[in-house]
């Protein structure tokens, strides 16, 4: 549940690129995948095929070397991704566009091939392709700028087999200098698929063609266009850690220097100390929560049907993500009163209690969640936080290790284990640095729980 909606601002020192660098002359490669024909779906996603073609053509006009693929099986998708990775040169701009079905599991988003066979939670990681892993591989291969455009926030036939609701997509844990745009908010889904073209791609193409604006602004304008066109019913999710100047439609026009001299390269910010005490951010105000379109939509559903536990559960998650813990607890309490053995709801309440300091209550919730579902990695992660705050470092290390074995790319579990190791007298630096490389804001996130990596 430890989902962080972050705007990452890490630099590119590791790649030798200053924040003022230009990407106009860099190699630009793109992989465009449109999976429209899923045998398990009741109809062909007509908009997917058309939108993927339109995006591929636009990227070619923008100077990308494009590989467009459609209706890929798992084996074919793996081969196409390997070919894409092999084409990435150091310093390149690498972009992936995926249109089809996506699903979240263990706080990761998975892109699904057309032959996915998903009946249980473990099938997701077996047959799906982790977006986090794709972005990490793009970074490892040397891409200076990573862009992921994901139109996969659809209700799909797979989740109906083992979940009582559609969970939408999870936030991407992306390396620095990355742009990620989803067609809908985290945890939200759209009902599209029967039209010839999708609204999200129509807005995206219009903004990509706009001259003299950067890529980040183009994607922000895409989000705003979708929000306006749907009257806030669909709110795309954007995450950016972009520090290098880049535009889809060519170089961004820059005003002349006031003293007539050339632009002075921006010096990178000095690196922060390895161990820094961070202040927790304040929670949102009542006005901020009232303006949130996802909360407003879920509130309307709950008002119309007080027994709508799915909407109440989702709203609790959104409240917790926004650190409105008291409101989150109210929703999770209501769900658990109705379904006392809902392991996921118990885990979410455990984590919320851990964040607020109700450690014994959190421990009881996590223990019960793991009794009901012994393989629930999120519950191990949440119980790790409880034990860490209780000072039980050995128990915390064991819980975090169990979570990592089930989800190796959990930045929260890696950071938590590193902190627990450090507080227990060990080093922990490797885990902490790995977690920070995956999620530059993970230390700030833990500061919000009252946990710091520093040991007195």
TrEMBL record:
The keyword Signal applies. Residues 1-23 form the signal peptide. PANTHER family: MUCOSA ASSOCIATED LYMPHOID TISSUE LYMPHOMA TRANSLOCATION PROTEIN 1/PARACASPASE, MUCOSA-ASSOCIATED LYMPHOID TISSUE LYMPHOMA TRANSLOCATION PROTEIN 1. This is Tetratricopeptide repeat protein. Keywords: Signal, TPR repeat. InterPro entries: Caspase-like_dom_sf (IPR029030), Caspase-related_regulators (IPR052039), Pept_C14_caspase (IPR011600), Pept_C14_p20 (IPR001309), TPR-like_helical_dom_sf (IPR011990), TPR_rpt (IPR019734). GO terms for molecular function: cysteine-type endopeptidase activity. It comes from Bradyrhizobium stylosanthis. Residues 26-84 form the Caspase family p20 domain. The keyword Signal applies. TPR repeats lie at residues 377-410. It comes from the Bacteria. The lineage of its organism: Bacteria, Pseudomonadati, Pseudomonadota, Alphaproteobacteria, Hyphomicrobiales. Residues 250-273, 408-434 are annotated as: Disordered. GO terms for biological process: proteolysis.
């Amino acid at each position: 549940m430890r989902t962080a909606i972050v705007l990452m601002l890490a630099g590119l020192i590791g790649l030798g690129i200053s924040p003022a660098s230009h990407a106009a002359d860099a190699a630009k490669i793109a992989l465009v995948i449109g999976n429209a024909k899923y045998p398990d779906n009741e109809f062909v996603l007509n908009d997917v095929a058309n939108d993927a073609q339109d995006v591929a053509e636009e990227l070619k006009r923008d100077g990308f070397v494009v590989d467009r693929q459609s209706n890929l099986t798992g084996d074919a998708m793996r081969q196409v991704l390997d070919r894409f990775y092999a084409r990435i040169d150091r310093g390149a701009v690498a972009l992936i566009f995926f249109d089809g079905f996506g699903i979240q599991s263990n706080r990761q988003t998975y892109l699904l091939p057309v032959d996915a066979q998903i009946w249980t939670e473990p099938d997701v990681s077996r047959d799906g392709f982790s977006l986090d892993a794709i972005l990490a591989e793009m970074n490892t291969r040397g891409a200076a700028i990573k862009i992921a455009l994901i139109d996969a926030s659809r209700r799909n036939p797979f989740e109906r087999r083992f979940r009582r609701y559609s969970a939408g997509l999870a936030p991407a844990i992306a390396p620095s200098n990355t742009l990620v745009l989803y067609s809908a908010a985290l945890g939200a889904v759209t009902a599209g698929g029967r039209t010839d073209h999708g609204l999200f791609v129509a807005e995206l193409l219009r903004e990509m063609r706009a001259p003299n604006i950067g890529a980040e602004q183009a994607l922000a304008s895409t989000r705003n266009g979708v929000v306006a066109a749907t009257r806030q019913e669909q709110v795309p999710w954007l995450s950016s850690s972009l520090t290098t100047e880049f535009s889809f439609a060519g170089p961004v026009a820059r005003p002349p220097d006031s003293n007539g001299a050339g632009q002075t390269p921006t010096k990178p910010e000095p690196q922060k100390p390895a161990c820094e005490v961070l202040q927790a951010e304040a929670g949102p105000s009542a006005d901020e929560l009232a303006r949130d379109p996802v909360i407003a939509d879920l509130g309307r559903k709950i008002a119309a049907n007080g027994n709508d536990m799915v909407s109440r559960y989702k709203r609790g998650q959104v409240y917790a993500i926004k650190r409105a813990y008291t409101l989150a607890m109210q929703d999770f309490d209501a769900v658990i009163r109705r379904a006392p053995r809902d392991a996921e709801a118990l885990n979410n309440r455990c984590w919320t209690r851990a964040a607020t300091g109700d450690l014994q209550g959190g421990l009881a919730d996590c223990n019960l969640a793991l009794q009901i579902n012994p393989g629930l990695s999120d519950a191990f992660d949440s119980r790790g936080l409880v034990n860490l705050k209780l000072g039980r470092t050995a128990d915390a290390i064991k819980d975090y290790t169990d979570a990592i074995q089930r989800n190796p790319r959990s930045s929260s579990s890696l950071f938590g284990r590193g902190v627990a190791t450090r507080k227990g007298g060990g080093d922990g630096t490797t885990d902490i640095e790995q977690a920070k490389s995956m999620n530059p804001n993970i230390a700030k996130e833990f500061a919000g729980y009252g946990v710091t990596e520093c040991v007195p």
